[in-house]
Amino acid sequence: MVTRISLETGTTAPTGSTNAYLIEAGEGLVIDPAAQSPRLDTVIQERDISHLALTHHHPDHVGAVSHYATEYDLTVWARYGRTTEFANATGIEPDRQFVVGEPLPVGGDLQVVDTPGHAPEHVSFAVEQSGSTILITGDLALASGSVVVGAPEGDMRAYLSSLRRIRAMKPMRLYPGHGPVIDEPQKVCDRLIAHRLAREAKIKIAVAAGHRTVDALVDDVYEKDISGVEYLAKATVRAHLEKLAVEGHVVWDGQHARVHGD
């Protein structure tokens, strides 16, 4: 059984809130306790939750980790090799480490799936339910709109690979970090992949047309009003340029972009 609890966090996500999830399998697990909440307190107590884990370390997902770990004596898990980053983000040291691609050893049938891109340490948690797979996916996908994949932390190549990996699993449902449950996972993955590739195509055309800087590219490829979130648009364009440079489509030195031979 998976329970979703929306927590007010002031996140830049359109909802202004972050979803925490409780999985009643084995010894019980809470994922992404982003803020303190009377309902979350009650559910953790009533359902005897014993473990805590994160999809990733961004501030709008970790705000109450220390509180719940201490108040309810939860065993805190971090991704293997990312314990320092976990401690820096949450203010507490993890008790144990999990390995991607392997079951999370808390009882029940929980699998850790590698889904980097939005953040380098980003993972999703797969749960078998009534013969089908559901996934708690953090900031991999949204039912509508898109998540930020911005350089230097965001990796657009990794993000697209993560979407394709999740799509290939053919899950029944996705439980995202923000907004409502996703009941058509493959359709949403296809939409998000198409959205990124469409913006990438615009950036390639703009670079070929002589737009060299991030500022110039943002002005050219974003048609909607991005007042207040221009910094996110710039980070996204940088992530696209890094992907295009790795793939040999453009030359990018961190400041200026050009096509080969230009």
Written overview of the protein:
There is one protein chain. The chain is α/β, with parallel strands linked by helices and 262 residues long. The protein is elongated. The strands form three sheets. A six-stranded mixed sheet has the order 1-2-3-4-5-6, with helices on one face. Helix 5 links the parallel strand 9 and strand 10. The protein contains eight helices and twelve strands. The mean pLDDT is 94. It has two domains: 182 residues, Ribonuclease Z/Hydroxyacylglutathione hydrolase-like (Metallo-beta-lactamase, Chain A, 4-Layer Sandwich), CATH 3.60.15.10; 66 residues, Arc Repressor Mutant, subunit A (Orthogonal Bundle). The termini are far apart.
Q: Topology of this protein?
A:
Elements: E1 2-8, E2 17-23, E3 29-31, H1 38-46, E4 51-53, H2 59-62, H3 65-71, E5 75-79, H4 83-90, E6 96-98, E7 110-114, E8 123-129, E9 132-138, H5 156-168, E10 173-176, H6 185-208, H7 214-221, H8 230-246, E11 251-252, E12 257-258
Parallel strand pairs: 3-4, 4-5, 5-6, 9-10
Antiparallel strand pairs: 1-2, 2-3, 7-8, 8-9, 11-12
Task: Specify the biggest β-sheet.
Answer: 6 strands, mixed
The side-by-side strand order for the widest beta sheet comes to 1-2-3-4-5-6
Order of helices and strands: EEEHEHHEHEEEEHEHHHEE
What is the assembly state of the chains in this entry?
Answer: single chain
| CATH class wording of the largest domain | Alpha Beta
Mean pLDDT, as a whole number? 94
- Structural Rg: 19 Å
Provide the CATH topology of the largest domain. Metallo-beta-lactamase, Chain A
Runs in which pLDDT lies below 50 for 5 or more consecutive residues are: none
Helix content: 25-40%
End-to-end distance: 57 Å
Alpha-beta content class: alpha/beta
Total strand count, please? 12
